[in-house]
Amino acid sequence: MKIGKKTAFAATLAAAALAVAGCSSSGDDTASSGGDGDTMYIALVSKGFQHQFWQAVKTGAEQKAEELGVEITFDGPASETEVDAQLQMLQTAIDKDPAAIAYAALDPEACIPLYESAEAAGIPIVEFDAPCDSEYSQSLAATDSLVAGALAAQHMAELIGGEGQVAIVGHSQINSTGVERRDGFVNEIEANYPDIEIVDIQYGDGDHLKSADIAKAMIAANPDLKGIYGTNEGSAIGVVNAVNELGLPKGELTIIGFDSGAAQINAIKDGTMAGAITQDPIGIGETVVQAAYDVANGESVEGFYDTGSYWYDADNIDDPEIAAVLYE
Fold it and tell me: pLDDT digit string (tens) for 200-210?
């Protein structure tokens, strides 16, 4: 099943990438106008499109929509810092009066008034990747980011021999994924690895250029630094680029990333990056569309669907179960 997901994603990625220009929809003219009146219409609003993770979520959503015979739109801002743009997309989704909305919150507080508007309009909301701080949502499909952050910490500790200085390049100190991936890592180190010191935590907004500058500054300020953890694709690639720009030997600094994408996969294969945590983005897309379909039909859903997190490195990257949750 999962291998099939990967194959389907690989076959559609090129076409999906061509369709993405800052923000996107499912590409179906009828769906973009809010449905044809006879087919159930579900509006999805993601955090963005600049990372391959969201392309994979979109693919999973489209696959499940086709299976269920529903129409969807899938929109998101060009950058995960564009909170206002995302809120406008949520308002647009409400105005279309869909059968349900699926939402991934960039700012957990700013979305609350719009959730109230959706509730007043009788439009159910389910969530994916990151929740809004509202009690109205019926379900969340996401990775348990605290668990995933702890998994990253365990591998960092093993790779650096259980002692030394490490740092974190985070992607957000506002949305839940950034906070929990950071806190899961920090809590695990503090609880179980007393000889490891976290000397710095900074935030690059998931932008690889900004994250590279942060990483270079961290390395310069901490000559004994043994490792850096990047909490999403852009953060991790920023660290990789920093190491390459500084000319450090491969493996001298232990780099652990998060998510997948061709750049991280290549960095792991060539030895620049030690490994990363991947999610199941196609599974997230499938799960949230199923949840939206179920709530629109008045069926009960789980409050939280944990879609899982997985460590991958050069040793297991080609294992079928790992390959199925990687995306390029």
Answer: 999 999 999 99
